[in-house]
């Protein structure tokens, strides 16, 4: 999606992707990464409450989001007042263990992620249409440090039956575009069609939520 699509969604507060609780699949599967220290990188983070989960687990968190309202709402709704400073092409908002880089994901540098030991994708890969997602995979491979482990929660369904976002990201897609840079292990798969009315109403025949552990080679 082009930036204006997301800025418009935030402006109108049409943010159906935002969850009112920490993602249950994050809570269920985070321990599979076996990462006990170091910062966690959360690309395309919106104002997700999942950021709090990492801090509760003892990890500093580094989010990235290009919508100002999203970043400001995250801090305001968390009762935090951030220090705001320039960070290369982006702007850093920091309070306590929370550091959010406001700006384009594609402008992030490896140096900005150097202290990250883990990353988390919910609503990032699936937010992007095919061409942009391929670019995203290339850039992610460039900026994630060696040995860093990621948890990815992705939707998969027959893309020809419904347009995104959320887009389908299959295990085969992951292997094709991230397999050179990451080892990829699928650790869970859930049939979530019944609880997603939009997909049912549009006649989508199946919808899975798949969980992966990725390790940067
Ligand atoms: C589907 S939402 C998911 C947000 C969050 N991960 C969640 O689970 O609530 C995608 C988010 O990515 C942001 N975004 C899209 N493209 C971006 C880019 N190139 N750089 C930074 N943020 C981006 C959007 O503004 C939006 O908040």
Automatic annotation (TrEMBL):
Entry EC number(s): 2.1.1.67
InterPro entries membership: SAM-dependent_MTases_sf, Thiopur_S-MeTfrase_Se/Te_detox, Thiopurine_S-MeTrfase, TPMT
GO molecular function: thiopurine S-methyltransferase activity
Catalytic activity reported: S-adenosyl-L-methionine + a thiopurine = S-adenosyl-L-homocysteine + a thiopurine S-methylether
Protein name: Thiopurine S-methyltransferase
Family: Belongs to the class I-like SAM-binding methyltransferase superfamily. TPMT family.
Localization in the cell: Cytoplasm
Superkingdom as given in the UniProt entry: Bacteria
UniProt keywords, alphabetically: Cytoplasm, Methyltransferase, S-adenosyl-L-methionine, Transferase
């Amino acid at each position: 999606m082009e930036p204006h699509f997301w800025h418009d969604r935030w402006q109108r507060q049409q943010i159906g992707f935002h969850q009112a609780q920490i993602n249950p699949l994050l809570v269920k599967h985070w321990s599979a990464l076996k990462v006990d220290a170091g910062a966690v990188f959360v690309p395309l983070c919106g104002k997700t409450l999942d950021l709090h989960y990492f801090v509760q687990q003892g990890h500093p968190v580094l989010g990235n989001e290009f919508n100002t309202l999203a970043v400001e709402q995250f801090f305001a709704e968390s009762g935090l007042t951030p220090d705001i400073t320039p960070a290369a092409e982006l702007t850093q908002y920091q309070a306590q263990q929370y550091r959010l880089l406001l700006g384009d994901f594609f402008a992030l540098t490896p140096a900005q992620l150097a202290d990250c030991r883990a990353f988390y994708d919910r609503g990032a890969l699936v937010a992007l249409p095919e061409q942009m997602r391929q670019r995203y995979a290339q850039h992610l491979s460039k900026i994630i440090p060696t040995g860093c482990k990621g948890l990815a929660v992705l939707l998969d369904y027959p893309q020809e039956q419904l347009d995104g976002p959320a887009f389908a990201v299959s295990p085969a897609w992951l292997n094709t575009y991230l397999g050179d840079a990451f080892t990829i292990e699928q650790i869970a798969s859930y049939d979530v069609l019944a609880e997603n009315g939009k997909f049912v109403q549009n006649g989508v025949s199946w919808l899975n939520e798949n969980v992966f552990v990725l390790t940067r080679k």
